[in-house]
Amino acid sequence: MKNRILDLLMTAVLVAATQTAAAEITLIHAGQLLTVAGERPASEQTIVVDGDRIVDVVDGFAEASTFGEDTRVIDLRNHFVLPGLMDMHVHLQGELGPNNEKETLKMSSQLMQMRSIHFAMKTLMAGFTTVRDVGSSAQEMYAMRDAIDKGWIDGPRIIAAGGVGITGGHADISGVKPELMEYWTDASICDGPYDCRRATRNAIKYGADLIKITSTGGVLTDRATGTGQQMEMDELREVVLAAKRMGRKVASHAHEEDGIIAALEAGVASIEHGTYTGPRAIELFKETGAYLVPTLIAGKTVGTMAVESSFMTDAIKLKAARIGADMAGNFAKAHAAGVNVAYGTDSGVSPHGTNAGEAVLMVEAGMTEMEVLVAATINAADLIDMSDSIGTIEAGKYADIIAVDRSPLENIEELLDVDFVMKGGKVYKD
Ligand SMILES: [Zn+2]
Fold first, then answer.
1. Which of 58, 173, 325, 337 lies at a 20 to 30 A Cα distance from 276?
2. Segment 168-212, tens digit of pLDDT
3. Cα–ligand 1 centroid distance for 273 (angstroms)
4. 3-class DSSP state for residue 195?
C-alpha cells in the first residue's frame, strides 16, 4: 500500500515537472515600463513571463527565438505598462440604484451570485487585478474568491472580509419591516466584547481573510442614527484582538472623527472613508501606520444621488449630502499631513468598472499621479500582506500587468481607459 502511494506521488511530481517545463514563455515588449510605483519608468523593456509568474525584466525588446520555439510576444511598444491596480474597498454583490429594494426581494441569491461574477469581470477589465471585498454575503463571496483562485471562473484576485457589526449599527439590516429585519439579522451582529469576540471568531471560521467592522454609522443605513461612533471601545478592542490571535487584520468603516480615533486606538489596519479625519486622527494614523482608504468616488456618488435621484429616503439623503460634500476636502488635509493611503472606491456604491475614477479624484485632492499609483499597488499590497507576490513588476511576482496608451504620470485620466490586462500570466484584454 505504502509503495502504491509513493508511486502515485512520484507520478504526480513527474507530471507537475513536465507541465512546468512545457509552460509557455511570454515576452511583453513595453514602450514605457513602470516596474515599481515610486521609481522612474524605463523605456523599451521586456517583461519575461513564465506561466503565472514574472521571471525577468530585461532592457530592450528581447527576441522570442532566444527563449525557445513556443515563445509568445505581446507587443506593447506603443504603450505605458504598469502593475495591475488594486482596489481595497469594493462590494461585488450589488450596485446602488433605484432597483435595490426590488432586487432584495425578488432576485435569487443564485442569480445575485452570477451577477457578482459579471461585476467582478467588469472590475478586472478596468485594470484592477486584485480587490478587497469588504461587505457582501460572506459565503457567496468566499465561494467566488475560491473559484477564481482555482481558475474555475475568471475574475480579479479577491481578498474577502467577514463582517462584525452591532445591533442597529451600520452593518445591521435596516429599512424593511420588523419580520424581515428579524429574518435577515446575521450571526455577524453582536453586542458587548464577548459577543463580538464570538462574531469575529465565527467570521474567521467560515473563511474571512480579514474582519470588516463599522465603528461609526453609515450613509446607506436607512435609519437616522447619524455617522458618529457606534461601536464601543471594549467591542473594538475585542474584535481586533480576536482577529489578531488568528492572524487576521481589521478594517473599519468610519466617518466621524470620534469613531476613527476609537478604531485606530483599538489597532485596526485601515480606516475606510475616514470622512472627518481631523488633527487627532491624523496623529494616530501616523503613530500606528494604519492606512486611510478614502473612497472619494463613493462620497461623490452619494452626494450627487442625494440631489438628483428620488429613491433615497430622507434619513439617507441627509447623511449622503453632508458626507458627499465633506469627504474630498478632509482627505486633502489628511494626505497633505502624510497619512498612509491605500486605494479604494467602495464600488457598488459607484458602478463596477469605474474604479479608476477614484484616481482622478485623488489627484484633484492634491495627490501626485505617482502617489496615486503607489496607493493602488505597493500600499494596497502591503495592506493585504501580499507584497511578496503582487504590487510590482519584478521577478518572482505574479504576472499582474496592465497597459494604457500614454503615461498616467502625465495624465491620470489614462487609467480610465485600460487597453491591456494580464492577471497571473493570462491575458484578459488586449
Ligand atoms: Zn463600503
1. 173
2. 999 889 888 999 999 999 999 999 999 999 999 999 999 999 999
3. 8
4. helix
Which residues, by Cβ under 5 Å, contact ligand 1, an ion?
346
Q: How confident is the model at residue 62 (pLDDT cuts 50, 70, 90)?
A: very high
Please tell me the distance between residue 305's alpha carbon and the centre of ligand 1 in angstroms.
16
What does the block give as the cell for 246? 488568528
Grid cell listed for 189: 451582529
Q: What are phi and psi of 254, to 5 degrees?
A: -160, 135
Distance 179 CA to ligand 1 centre (A): 26
**Length of the chain in residues, anyone?**
430
Q: Which grid cell is 218?
A: 453609515
Cβ-based neighbour number of residue 156 at 10 Å: 31
Q: Which residues contact 106 (CB under 8 A, 6 or more apart)?
A: none
Is the pLDDT at 254 greater than 90? The verdict is: yes
Which pLDDT value is given to residue 1?
A: 45
User: What global pTM score does this model have?
Assistant: 0.93
H or E element, residue 144: helix 138-149
Residues facing residue 401 across a β-bridge: 83, 422
pLDDT at res. 112: 95
The alpha carbon of 119 and the centre of ligand 1 are apart by a number of angstroms equal to: 15
- Ligand 1 centroid to Cα of residue 36, in Å, is 28
Residue 411 phi, psi dihedral angles, 5° rounding: -145, 105
Q: What mean pLDDT comes out for the span 229-234?
A: 97
Confidence at residue 69, expressed as pLDDT on a 0 to 100 scale: 85
The answer on pLDDT for 3 being more than 60 is no
Distance 90 CA to ligand 1 centre (A): 6
Q: Whole-angstrom Cα distance, residue 244 to residue 159?
A: 17
Distance (angstroms) between ligand 1 centre and the Cα of 40 equals: 33
Per-residue burial over 321-349, b if 16 or more Cβ lie within 10 Å, else e, is: bbbbeebbebbbebbeeebbbbbbbbbbb
Cell of 112: 445575485
Q: How far is CA 277 from CA 53, 129, 260, 310, in A?
A: 39, 29, 7, 30
